[in-house]
């Protein structure tokens, strides 16, 4: 079996796992943001800013992980 | 076994895992958005904006992951 | 099987696991930050500062882990 | 199979496991810090100091673990 | 398969498991410390001292475990 075979396998599975991680993480914090905005509508602006900051941190990790999978996929 | 065989396998499995991740994540935050809008109808606009922002972040990760699976599928 | 084959496999799977870890961790603490901001809107600034510090610590570990996976991917 | 093959595998998987551990640990303590800051805003400074100390201890273990994985990755 | 191959594998996996153990442990006790400080802000100093002592004990075990993994990694 050639190395690229496992690289392709890892690219697909890895991209999937990265997406699960990022989605569950952003989904969880955003869910709390929604509930918080509903409970304190006047704090919606503050909560949204915090939500975007935290989601962007997760997004950064996820995109870097996907770049690694991308490098594996184009081998 | 040729490398492309595993690439095809990974494309299918990976696309599925990406879709699971994005769906669970967006589903969870959207569910909270619905409940929040129902509890505080006057905050529905704010909540919808936050929901679209968070869902778009998940969507971005998921689409990049699917592009990787796409690259594997057309090998 | 050549060493690089397992290196590629490890890069993809490793990147996925790193992303799951970081996302779940940041997602959890950010979720609590959202709920806290909603309960005490006047403490939103303090909470956001603490959230960014803690998320940055997780981000640091995750990025270092992804660099290791990146090194494996470009072998 | 050459020894370096398993070293590469261990580097990727190990980096992922380290990141999960550190992220879940920091995520959990930081979540409690957020909730604590929201419940007692006047104690936010004390809580943040304690949070950074505890998170730094986890960070130290995680970075040492990642260095081991790094050594394995560059073999 | 040469013995060093399994040594490398053990170093990576072992470092990951050590980090999970230490992180979950420190994360749990620190989480309780945060909650305790929030409930009794005037006891924050005492709680922090106890937290550092307990976390340092976990840190000691974890670092010794990581040194063992380090010795395996540099074989």
TrEMBL record, chains A, B, C, D, E:
Subcellular locations according to the entry: Cell inner membrane; Membrane
PROSITE patterns documented for this protein: ATPASE_C (PS00605)
Site positions per UniProt: Reversibly protonated during proton transport: 59
One Gene Ontology molecular-function label: lipid binding
UniProt keywords, alphabetically: ATP synthesis, Cell inner membrane, Cell membrane, CF(0), Hydrogen ion transport, Ion transport, Lipid-binding, Membrane, Transmembrane, Transmembrane helix, Transport
Sequence ranges assigned to domain V-ATPase proteolipid subunit C-like in this UniProt record: 9-72
InterPro entries registered for this protein in UniProt: ATP_synth_csu_bac/chlpt, ATP_synth_F0_csu, ATP_synth_F0_csu_DDCD_BS, ATP_synth_F0_csu_sf, ATPase_proteolipid_c-like_dom, F/V-ATP_Csub_sf
Record's bilayer topology term: Multi-pass membrane protein
Transmembrane segments: 6-31, 52-74
Gene Ontology CC terms, in alphabetical order: plasma membrane; proton-transporting ATP synthase complex; proton-transporting two-sector ATPase complex, proton-transporting domain
Family (UniProt): Belongs to the ATPase C chain family.
Subunit structure: F-type ATPases have 2 components, F(1) - the catalytic core - and F(0) - the membrane proton channel. F(1) has five subunits: alpha(3), beta(3), gamma(1), delta(1), epsilon(1). F(0) has three main subunits: a(1), b(2) and c(10-14). The alpha and beta chains form an alternating ring which encloses part of the gamma chain. F(1) is attached to F(0) by a central stalk formed by the gamma and epsilon chains, while a peripheral stalk is formed by the delta and b chains.
Function field: Key component of the F(0) channel; it plays a direct role in translocation across the membrane. A homomeric c-ring of between 10-14 subunits forms the central stalk rotor element with the F(1) delta and epsilon subunits. F(1)F(0) ATP synthase produces ATP from ADP in the presence of a proton or sodium gradient. F-type ATPases consist of two structural domains, F(1) containing the extramembraneous catalytic core and F(0) containing the membrane proton channel, linked together by a central stalk and a peripheral stalk. During catalysis, ATP synthesis in the catalytic domain of F(1) is coupled via a rotary mechanism of the central stalk subunits to proton translocation.
Matching HAMAP family: ATP_synth_c_bact (MF_01396)
Protein known as: ATP synthase subunit c
Organism in which the protein naturally occurs: Rhodothermus marinus (strain ATCC 43812 / DSM 4252 / R-10) (Rhodothermus obamensis)
Gene name in the database record: atpE
